[in-house]
Specification:
Number of strands: 11
Shape: globular
Largest sheet: 6 strands, mixed
Number of helices: 20
Distance between the termini: 35 Å
Structural class: alpha/beta
Low-confidence stretches: 1-22, 320-348, 442-484, 492-523
Radius of gyration: 27 Å
Helix content: 25-40%
Strand content: 5-15%
Length: 523
Amino acid sequence: MHNPGMQDESRAPTAAPAIDDPAGPARTLLLVDGSSYLYRAFHAMPDLRAVPGDMGSPATGAIRGMINMMQSLRKEVPAAFAACVFDAKGPTFRDEIYPEYKAQRAPMPDDLRSQIAPIHEVVRLLGWTVLDVPGVEADDVIGTLARLGAAQGLKVVVSSGDKDLSQLVNEQVTIIDTMNGKVRDVAGVTAEFGVPPERMIDFQTLVGDTVDNVPGVPKVGPKTAAKWLAEYGSLEALLERAAEIKGVAGENLRNSLDWLPTGRRLVTIKTDCDLAGWLPGLPDFSAIALQPPRQDELKGFYESYGFKGLARALAVAAPAPAAASAGDTPDLFSEAAPAPVAEAPASTGRYDMVCDWALFERWLARLQAAALVALDTETSSLDAMRAEIVGISFSVEVGEAAYIPLAHDYPDAPAQLPRDEVLARLRPWLEDASRPKLASTSNTTAMCSPTTASRCAAMCTTPCCRAMCSRCTSPTAWPAWPNATPGARASTTKTCAARGPTRSPSARWRSSGRRSTRARTPT
């Protein structure tokens, strides 16, 4: 029943959705669909490596993404009890029921598989209980813990993009998707699927699950399933009166009568898993009380995987050693403690995930009116000759940005705007030399128009970037040119001379054919 991936619908706020929790953190149980999270992290992050640029060193992108997501969730959904649940290796009871279950799934990428063990390790070091129970799926463990928590009067919050978990929702259990701000409470599930949570198993049985290779009734989609359940009240009542259903849909329903009980078993999340061997003391939840991060071990972990910025942040956050007394002998080989650094303020910006035309048009209007737009592309490769655009991001001012996903492809990826049409609608603005634009790399900084030269001087940082902007506009109009390295100046002069001195910025945009393939370094 697991549906990994990174679901991005119309918006992606930096904070988790607000949850109405009058009981407070002390009475909150937070359950994380870890398998969904790790797939999201893997697909969302660039191809980071423990040794930057060395493709033979371990992949670390999913690890870094997982750290970011778990830290953010902990801040945004305070809870006394918490667990991160992953799918365990090996078959489950569903494979015994139906050997074709998930048969069409592509194997897990090797680079993701190699990161699972360190992801489990770092999640534990961050203070979370990690669970991976053989024979069942993460959804079943989550379902069991959610039932037990609700029975004790806890407010249960499940963080996942998997729609299948909607069948667990009730007045005490809520599903949140931090990637798009979606809250699946009782009202949210009913509005989204057309049936209340207690009818979601019936709904899923009729519709089937293509991701998990669970057949439903052929040619019966969500609208028909919701209509039938609204009319007949339940799947059981519908099947008792299957002879009354007319047309092709009715014939398909009658032809599926033998299969539907099996399908129902496959789509039903277990809520009675035996977890005694993994969480002694249940239903007492003290075994999964959220713990403080283990700072010393985290620092070593971060350093071993090349996360230098995270390691530095831990060192800065660590309490300063007590001052030595007058009689103490200083250690000649000790390093001075780093000076305290002020903590950066929490982000209060607005960040949109653009997956519908209405939001796209609002952002296009902002782009057209902005004095300067910073833009970047996410691509399928760091090789500019092979890369395909996966998404485009824009920022018009500090704390105001948007991302348009265009080719995200994984099990619970959202419905996305068509790439060709998005690019076609953006093209007039992109080719308009009077609309200043700032790209993030030397491959694309050449698109800046002459009017942006002074702004680029303040915003670009690398010599080759500055030299490119300067040479493509005017060396005398932009003071960064004399400060560029000789190699950067020579290379840029050769590149720009090949483009020709009379070509407009928009012509340079069209002819370059390059996509931003920023090679990010983990910090």
